[in-house]
Design goal:
The longest helix is centred in the first third of the chain and has 17 residues. The two termini are about 25 Å apart. The protein is of the alpha/beta class and about 250 residues long. The protein has a six-stranded parallel β-sheet, sandwiched between helices. It folds into two domains: about 160 residues, TPP-binding domain (Rossmann fold); about 80 residues, SIR2/SIRT2 'Small Domain'. Helix 9 links the parallel strand 7 and strand 8. Helix 1 packs across helix 10 and helix 8 packs parallel to helix 9. Bound molecules: adenosine-5-diphosphoribose. Adenosine-5-diphosphoribose (APR) binds next to strand 8.
Length: about 250
């Protein structure tokens, strides 16, 4: 990647009145967590069927099977560490350059890297909630449940991961805050997302339609690239530290 796009992106971030970051599974790839699509044979949806694991119907049909998959992912994530990409975003927030990270990821690595204002559009793998719509039980967990599927201590129904499955609405508070932030932002740094899943993928579009600047970091082109003002081709863990350095020089 030549310096020109990097300098253009750094100038946009350094002069932004209100910039946010928007991230997907690609920012956690270098932490050893497989993405869902693209990037070869390791992507999750090339090995597993989302309709068997990430839908309310799948959970209804076979809660144990769904929990086995989430326990596998939890164990993977527990061993993972934030990578220089996560750390660079946390430093950009500490410098006041970005005001928040809106993420589609459920792994909690942004928070572990030190990002303070993180909006989790698709929930968190480190939270469980009761599958009984009439029950409001929710809890944070730091390790996989001992028995699966775990039972709700309040009503006895099965507990489920507090993540957004296909066909489910996004958490209202997270979505509302993400849209509010996007509407007041003039710059967005999009990292490691295919842009394939809505409504999350509307977030960068709000900035674009508001006349703002879209900067994208990805190893290949995505659905975002056609409307990105700057495309920084490369791995998040390599590009973001360079972007941080270039921005810091302009502050
Ligand atoms: N650095 C930057 N980008 C990367 C890297 C990397 N090291 N490795 C992979 N990528 C890019 C891929 O090129 C791809 O464009 O990350 C993107 C990952 O795309 P997806 O796997 O589709 O992940 P994401 O966009 O987050 O998916 C959105 O889909 O299945 C649902 O709920 C799930 O939140 C997820 C949503």
């Amino acid at each position: 990647m030549s310096d020109a796009p990097l300098i253009k992106a750094a100038r946009a971030l350094a002069s932004a009145k209100h910039a946010i970051a928007f991230t997907g599974a690609g920012i956690s790839a270098e932490s050893g967590i497989p993405t869902f699509r693209g990037s070869g044979k390791d992507s999750l949806w090339s090995k597993f069927k989302p309709e068997e694991l990430a839908t309310p119907e799948a959970f209804e049909r076979n809660p144990k099977r769904v929990w086995e998959w989430y326990v596998w992912r939890m164990n993977l994530i527990r061993k993972a560490k934030p990578n220089p990409g996560h750390e660079a975003l946390a430093k950009l927030e500490a410098l006041g350059v970005i005001k928040a990270v809106v993420t589609q990821n459920v792994d909690g690595l942004h928070q572990r890297a030190g990002s303070r204002h993180v909006i989790e559009l698709h929930g968190s793998i480190w939270r469980v909630k009761c599958s009984n719509p009439a029950c409001t039980f929710k809890a944070s967990i730091s390790e996989p449940p001992k028995e699966i599927p775990p039972k709700c201590p309040a009503c006895g129904h099965y507990l489920r991961p507090d993540v957004v499955w296909f066909g489910e609405p996004l958490p209202q508070d997270a979505w509302g805050e993400a849209v509010r932030l996007a509407e007041v932002s003039d710059t967005i740094l999009v990292v490691g997302t295919s842009g394939a899943v809505y409504p999350a993928a509307y977030i960068p579009l709000i900035i674009k339609e508001g006349g703002g600047t879209v900067i994208e970091v990805n190893v290949v082109e995505s659905s975002i690239t056609p409307y990105a003002d700057v495309f920084l081709k490369g791995k998040a863990g390599e590009v973001l530290p360079k972007l941080l350095e270039a921005v810091t020089k302009l502050l």
